[in-house]
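User: Can you write out an input/output pair for a complex, sequences first and structure second?

Assistant: Here is one pair. Inputs:
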Amino acid sequence: MSTTNAPKLSPAAADKIAAFHADTVREVREAIVRDRVVVVGMAQNPHVKNVLKALEAANVKFTYFEYGSYFSEWKKRLALKLWSGWPTFPQVFVDGVLIGGEDLTKEAIAKGELGGAPSTGAAQPS
Amino acid sequence: MNLSLAQTIEDKLKSALSPELLEVENESANHNVPKGSETHFRVVVVSRSFEGKLPVARHQLVYKALAEEMKPGRVHALAITSRTPAEWAAAAEANVSPPCLGGSKS
């Protein structure tokens, strides 16, 4: 997901962004290739909590990464925002693609786009 | 000659997305900005380019087309309704922009 202003970025700035908390960004990049549904969030944030609850209620299996809270690890979260191009958390990835935050994820669940079993507790094919 | 921002937005979206339906509305009057401002816009785009694309990807297409207009100091808020022709035929409903929260006008 390259940003639209990428060509205007000076090479020095681009390098800086690429190296900024690269281990955190790598961790998420690897996860979204490996796992079908990945949620990136932060502690305490109600929208993150809501999306986790909604996914659990829909029996969608997901991997969750939590980076700090309001007073910690904001630089890691900044690096993730610069990489994904999405300015807030949660960030939800499905099949390696960012589908959005809380609202768009809830919509996708409602449309049945995330699969998951009906909440009757039926066994999930893995 | 100075094109209005609304006209520029319309032209750019037309050439980038060849929409079957395009509405550009300047909603700035609903907000706490000087009269005649072009800061808050609402666009409705119905285009085949959105087929098979998730909402995020659709909005990214719109933002990409309007990269110049979305720079700081120009468009402050853009409400986007992005539909494929099939979706629009099924339900021709545009999103409604949220009310102004940036300081009361009264």
